[in-house]
Please model this.
Amino acid sequence: MKKLNIGLIGAGFMGKAHSLAYAAMPMFFWPPPAVPHRRLLADFSEEAAAEGASRFGFESSTGDWRKLVSDPSIDVVDIATPNDLHPEMAIAAAEAGKHIMCEKPLARSAEEARRMYEAVKRAGVVHMVAFNYRRTPAVQLAKKLIDDGSVGEVLNFRGTYLQDWSADPLSPLSWRFQKAVAGSGALGDIATHVIDLARFLVGEVTGVHSSLTTYVKERPRQQGGVDKLGAARKLKDAPMGPVDVDDEVISALRFSSGAVGTLEATRNAYGRNNFLTFEIHGTKGSICFNYERRDELAVFLAEDPPDRRGFRTIYTGPAHPYGEHLWPIPALGIGYGETKIIECHDLMKAIVEGSLPSPSFRDGYQVSRIAEAMAKSSTDGTWVDIPRLED
Model:
């Protein structure tokens, strides 16, 4: 059975999620396309890397990510770092001939994402960007119902991603609030997930009319090297630092198919934890999804008799996409970890087959182009067209 040596850069929350997927994937997808071996972990210091390797089951560690990229034993470089580090790491990995997994958003700007995409194309390596929510079985089922014509021609997409971890102005000044590191705020952090779902389900976005807003202009600076994230972590007596990214984005959308849509994303919505939703209306029916109830897909079919019309709830399980590899009965529970396990499987499969997984760096680049168009639209107060992306 083929083994692929993994080099992970970043021992934070996303590093934990990716490490879990590497460990668990062969338990779910047996026989696996390849066995991911947790070979080497890199972080910002030797001490942090060693601790991360111990926690996440990696064979060895280093405080220098360049040593990981140049290590001839590494087959896959997994980038789970803040956004400003993605371009240099991904381009170096591509030039070293490594296959690459990179967390979203691909980069801080469309220009950075373009350079990353061109680097992996030149190198001929397999590349993937981690928009994992599209791998939720209910989302895959929605895609199937759209593609097989069950809901007819798609007319409208309505997507939201609402969180509340930054609603409290005393939550710390994470790197996610700093443009130099993150590139943007809610736009890049969570709205890009909605953009990915919109493209995956409905098709290419060709125009946007958007508004970006910042509610909290400064936040308490955090101490130490570990990023503190979440509304439960309040810093009452710390010095304040400026916030220079958006807290909320609202946008109208146009699609190449003629469909229209809306998008809203904010991290300042009290009471919403991970409220990633979409509602799609077609000429023959509608589909609704809420990630906080991720085993469920609500489906309305217009062909039902009048006395039986209404949304039916489908609980995903073995009969649905990826279901036979997960849990034996519907509604037993799909979590964030399972989406990462599926993501890992699809990456390993693509590497073994020499194919290109989706979403690729091309998709990540296009999402960055759309996000940048939203920011421009907010500044200019007009619709912004998004030209076709040529390969």
